[in-house]
């Protein structure tokens, strides 16, 4: 069976998951983290991608981006790898010819509240995978920038983030409050499943509305044969 193209919907953000090959650690040193972090805005500019959120842990990275074309996400990841892979071999031991799993995972996210939750989902990888006790002090995540701890001007804030307040202080304060509420198990599990399987993460109404703009089906089709309708002879 032919592999489906990567799901893309114009004006909808995407979450990308980059994993070390065979579960191996990609970032073993502070220098490795720093190299990847520094390359993110450079590759984004070169491939016309906006980065909304990121988080790096030893085994890989989650990124939240927006792109104007379906091919941009793949080119962006290739650009990152092309610059990062040879550079990281200079600062740490790499025991395989490839750093990353050959195909990264992705999901498209409904704009609005869903995208704000997805942003936090990306940043909470630091707690889920690296055991970070305080996201605001974790150096390899965009949470510190969204919470007002550091300034990363190259990040592109989501429209829904701007709606949190009229000033940077208001937006940062309300995002911290939003993060304290956390994500419910339903949201975390749903987004994680969509990311692993490449389906759209949205509510049902948006799913039905957006299908015609997508480059392929946005949700799995129901199993089994379609139910036959019996025509009346009366």
Biggest sheet features? 4 strands, antiparallel
Total helix count?
9
Q: Could you state the order of secondary-structure elements as H and E?
A: EHEEHEHHHHHHH
The general outline is: globular
The count of DSSP E runs of length 2 or more, i.e. the number of strands, is 4
Determine the structural class based on helices, strands and strand pairing. alpha+beta
What can you see in these coordinates?
The mean pLDDT is 90. Helix 1 (30-46) runs antiparallel to helix 2 (72-88). The protein has a four-stranded antiparallel sheet with strand order 2-3-1-4. Strand 2 and strand 3 (60-67) form a beta hairpin. The protein has helices spanning 30-46, 72-88, 113-123, 125-130, 143-146, 159-162, 168-181, 185-197, 204-210, and strands spanning 14-19, 49-57, 60-67, 105-108. The chain is an alpha+beta fold and 234 residues long. The chain is globular. It is built from nine helices and four strands. 40% of the residues lie in helices and 12% in strands.
